[in-house]
Every structure is written in C-alpha cells, then in structure tokens.
Write a structure and sequence with these properties.
heterodimer; A: alpha/beta; Elongation Factor Tu (Ef-tu), domain 3; Rossmann fold; 7-stranded mixed β-sheet; 6-stranded antiparallel β-sheet; about 20% helix; disordered N terminus; B: alpha+beta; Jelly Rolls; about 35% helix; about 30% strand; globular
C-alpha cells in the first residue's frame, strides 16, 4: 500500500511548455512572505521557527507534510512542519543548521520575513493505523517530522492501542524537545525509549543505537504500523529490526529525503527510482520504496 | 538451586536451553545485587564470569583522560553484561557499572568453561549465543562509527 492520499498541493497554473495563452503565475511567485513570530533553540545546532502566515492566509497541513522555506537572496529548502496540526497560530518548523540556507533560517530573528510555500507531499497514515499499535521511530532530526503525528496520536489516544516512541540521537545534548519527551514519558499510555550513541558518565539513560530499542517495547506485529524517520542508514537498520520483529513491508512507513528543489514535480532533482519524493513522498510505504531504498544508483 | 533454575529459565538469553543445561548453569550461578554506581567489574580485572541482568541497567564504560568516563553501551533487563570470560586472556575490556540498582544472576566463568570442555554440546550452545551477542554489539559499534547523526560532509542547503 503506497501513499495514503493524494498529496495536498495546489495545481500548477498553465502548461509547462508550449504556447501560453495568458499570463502564467508560478506557485512560488504569488506568495506574500511570512513573519517570524518566535524562535526557540532546541540544541546547539537546531532551532524551531514559529512562522506567522500573512493576514488572511489560512494554513493547514497533515502530519508528515513539508513546506518550502526560502530566505531571499540565499535559497530555499524543504522543511517538515513540526508543530501540532490541530493548533491555531504560528506554524512551527524545526531546522538543523547544516548549510547556507538552513543557517540563514536558524539565525532569523522575530519580526523578520521568510518565504513559505506549501504544504507539499504525502502524510502519515494515521487514519489507517487506527485500532492497532503504532511504533514511531525517530533518529536525530527525524523527530520533528514525526512530532505532528505524535500530537495527533496522543490527542486521539482512544483510537489506538499501544503507542511507542523510540528515539535516538548522537549525544544527550543533541536530544530535541527534552521537556516534551519528559512529559510523554510521564504518561502511562505511551512507551518512550530514548538512546544515544555515546554519553558521559552522568547520563542515566541508554547508550546504543535505535534499532536495539525495537525489541524492548511490546507490540502486536500483525496489528502494528511503524513510522520511521532518520538518516537513511539508521532507517535501513530499523526496518530490518522491525521486519525481524514480525512487521511486513506494508506496515512500515518512512519519510525519504532527497535533493528537493521545486517541490512541484517539475525539476526531477528528487527522483528516487520511479518516484519524485516531493510529489509521491516524503512519506512512503516501505513496500513501494524497498526496491529502490538501499540501491546505490538511486 | 531451584530458584536459580527458575530465574535462568525466565531469562531470555538462556531460558530456552535444555533443562539439563539449565541445571548445569544453575550450579555455576549466584544471585547478585548492586546498588547504583557500584562496579560489577573493572577494566583489566580477571573476567570471572558474566551477568544475566534481571533488573536495572549496567553501563559499559571506559575511563578517558580529561573527559571522565564515557558510557559506550548500556545493558538492561534480559541482556548480558560481560563475555570476556569466554575468550583468552579472560580479562574485562571495560568497566561495568550499575547505572541504576541491578539484580542479576552471575555465572562463574572458570566453572562454566570447565563444564563446556566436558560437554562440547553445551559449549557450542553457549558459544552460539555469545557469538550472536558479540555480532550484535559489533553491528551497533559499526553503526555508531558511521556517525549517522553527525554533520553531513556533502554540501547541504
């Protein structure tokens, strides 16, 4: 089973090539900039931006979808929405500072402008997972794209059976949303396991890698849906652990990352086998992606 | 002895061994408890055995100059701490310290090796389990060597 729903994108106006009957407005040209309402450092290299749409512009998204954020004169990047899909107010994006554009975004200050277009892409199959167990596996900055799904799962707790969050990071200092993790850990209706690659002697938690956590939480394999986001190598090993635990490929969903540029399925930069990640993803069912996932050429 | 056999039977690492082998293991076993922060074993010590963890968490640590101890792996309930007893020179490679109060079954390595020499089937069965454990730890180490959460080297946005 692959993509859950049609991507929620706006139709592209006019033909891409050929005679143009009238003025064509590209989707990235007709947007007013958004305003930075607040910023929040999440770790030494990761920041959450709260972005306010222009007056009169309504915005909604589904967990797993992303926006294209641009800083004028520098560039544009795809960033998953990391906030609560049911909440009103500014839209949260959690960004790791790893390049020119992300650095410009991470250093934006309240009141400054950011270009936003979206939301794009497919979403987590939350409705399809109802009635069963859900295992959410995140590595590093893979947690922000999953956070909207977690908000949804916890807000509709009675629709699911067991819920587990397995989260890995490089060191304790790299863990994102520590207050929320502590809050979720305090709940009796969600299992939260956190692990880091290495730690000093004062860390009381687990040290190791995320796939090790799969065997530690109880779930009923035939009735479980897994959502996985993280570096590709981490996802490959997590998928192996999940399949060893009894999940089939069509029960595993992951968010793929490729060099996304247009986000409107026109440029082809984000091609992954027969898919364009911006249009057919980023959330894929592993069943569809498996032949291409670990292939060097893809 | 019966209690020890019962505890061994309920431990995932050895629980499915033949009853006769569980009796052999029980004859080499002791129930042990460690409060938080207490060392189960120290790097360089004679590896006198291994610990089947029943409750709590053990950190495998290495002391580093200027950085204090680094925890390289944690081992929790249902897992095993220590396999140096199996391999020469039978010396622990890391410190094993209780991160939280630990209850475990300690297996006497010298005794166990002697039993394995006497009964190669038992030896093979235990070697198979410890080889699996070693492979898992190696896999985990390799994954961490990749530093998948680190800053990507390729140019990024």
């Amino acid at each position: 089973m692959h993509p859950v729903t049609e991507p929620v994108t706006e139709p592209i106006a006019g033909p891409i090539a050929g005679p143009i009957a009238g003025p064509v407005r590209a989707p990235w040209l007709d947007r007013e900039p958004w305003r930075v309402a607040a910023t929040r450092p999440e770790s030494h290299d990761t920041v959450t931006l709260e972005l306010e749409p222009p007056p009169g512009r309504a915005f909604s998204f589904r967990p797993g979808q992303f926006n294209m954020l641009y800083v004028f004169g520098i560039g544009e990047v795809p960033i998953s929405v990391s906030g609560d899909p049911a909440a009103d107010g500014p839209v949260r994006h959690t960004i790791r500072d790893i390049g020119a554009v992300t650095h410009a975004l991470c250093t934006r200050q309240p009141g400054q402008e950011v270009g936003v277009r979206g939301p794009y892409g497919t979403h987590w199959p939350l409705a399809e997972a109802e009635g069963g167990d859900v295992v959410v596996v995140a590595g590093g900055v893979g947690l922000p794209p999953l956070r909207p799904a977690l908000y949804h799962l916890l807000a509709h707790r009675d629709r699911y059976r067991r819920i587990a969050l397995l989260y890995g990071a490089r060191t304790p200092a790299d863990l994102l949303f520590p207050e929320e993790l502590a809050c979720w850990r305090g709940r009796f209706d969600v299992e939260v396991e956190v692990i880091v690659d290495a730690a000093s002697g004062d860390w009381r938690g687990d040290v190791g890698v995320v796939p090790e956590l799969v065997g530690r939480v109880p779930f009923d394999p035939p009735a479980t849906t897994a959502f996985v986001v993280g570096p590709e190598v981490m996802m490959r090993f997590t998928i192996r652990a999940l399949t060893r635990a009894g999940l089939s490929r069509d029960q595993i969903f992951l968010s793929a990352e490729r060099n996304m540029q247009c986000a409107t399925a026109m440029c082809g930069h984000c091609q992954l086998g027969p898919f364009l990640v911006c249009r057919d993803g980023p959330v894929f069912c592993y069943q569809a992606l498996a032949p291409w996932f670990a292939r060097r050429e893809a | 002895m019966e209690t020890l056999e019962h505890e061994l039977r309920s431990h995932p690492f050895v629980g499915d061994l033949e009853p006769a082998y569980l009796t052999v293991l029980a004859s080499c076993a002791t129930n042990v408890e460690f409060p938080a922060h207490r060392f189960l074993f120290r790097e360089g010590m004679h590896a006198s055995g291994c610990f089947l963890i029943r409750e709590g968490k053990v950190g495998l640590e290495i002391a580093t100059l200027g950085r204090g101890p680094i925890v390289i792996e944690t081992v929790g309930a249902g897992q095993v701490a220590g396999f140096s007893w199996l391999l020469e020179p039978h010396m622990y490679q890391f410190d094993g310290r209780a991160i939280e109060p630990v209850r475990a079954v300690a297996l006497d390595g010298d005794e166990l090796r002697a039993r394995c020499e006497q009964d190669p089937r038992l030896g093979f069965e235990l070697m198979r389990r410890f080889a699996h454990l070693a492979a898992e730890r190696l896999q985990s180490t390799r994954l961490r060597l990749l530093d998948v959460y680190g800053t990507p080297h390729a140019p990024r946005h």
